[in-house]
Amino acid sequence: MIGWLRRRRLSHRADEMMPSAAEFAAVCNASRCLALLNGRERQRLRRLAAIILADKEFHGAGGFQPGWEHCLPVAAHAALPVLEIGLGAYDQFRTFILYEDEFESDFEEIDEAGVVHRGRDLRAGEAWQRGPVVLSLADVHQSGQGDGYHVVVHELAHQIDHLNGDADGYPPLPRQIAHRDWVDTFSAAYRRLKRQIEAGIEAAIDPYAAESPAEFFAVTSEFFFDWPERLADTEAGVYRLLSELYQQDPLARLQRQ
After folding, report:
1. Is it true that the peptide bond before 207 is cis, omega within 30 degrees of 0?
2. Which of 60, 95, 143, 198 has the smallest number of CB atoms closer than 10 Å to its CB?
3. Domains plus CATH for the chain?
């Protein structure tokens, strides 16, 4: 009964948060990966974005107070990875924290020699297990332009990765994906990228993917949605598995244009 009541209230709030057709079309048309969606997909994305706006909290940081015009693009882009698999993938977190631009964050890393390095660096986004998801709005607006950069997809891929524990590049898999297929395909692709970088060969995808298996999964998810032809040409096996994971085929969307 409690779950049913909560879903009913959430549905009513989503009705109230539903963006107009015109403003949602403007958001979609400003992004290559959203502009590729057909009419039925856009309708579903619009509803999912409204549910995200109703269900998640949006807070500003660094003195910034986000308005509707800032939250709507975040929600629209956040809805893309779960367009077919559903918003249950985001159940572990409740909050988006939005900065106007890149923000400083503390980091702690352990190198191969076991030495711990601590400091601060500038970031476009962060995703913590069980939240929050932290985003630079300047980078949100630069995302989805067809060059493989999509900070919202990147950070939400980490959240999906977190669903079964630590972010390690091994998210919960649907039944149609065999464990060994995922491990073998992603591990081989990750090793190839690291070898290319070590040899001084220009990588076909963002070299940041070589930082860890978790970052490889997040970066390839960015390319999957935002530059699918590059990922399919570079790592066809990775593209195939991401298509099965997200239950989408952005390359087919591109080819029908």
Report:
1. no
2. 198
3. 57-255 (3.40.390.10)
Cα separation, 105 vs 135, whole angstroms: 12
Report the pLDDT value the prediction gives residue 2, as an integer from 0 to 100. 46
Tokens of 161: 């990765």
Distance in angstroms (rounded) separating the CA atoms of residues 166 and 50: 29
With contact defined as beta carbons under 8 Å apart, do 171 and 163 qualify? yes
Determine the pLDDT at residue 117: 47
Token duo for residue 54:
């109703």
If you compute the radius of gyration of the chain from its CA atoms, what whole number of angstroms results? 18
Using omega within 30 degrees of 0 as the cis cutoff, is the peptide bond preceding 172 cis? no
Per run of 10 residues, the mean pLDDT along the chain (length 257 residues) is 68 89 96 96 97 96 95 98 96 95 72 57 82 95 96 98 94 96 98 96 96 97 98 98 98 90
Label the pairing between strands 125-127 and 116-123: unpaired
Specify the residue for token string 């491990």: 183
Give 177's contacts (C-beta < 8 A, 6+ positions apart): 241, 244, 245
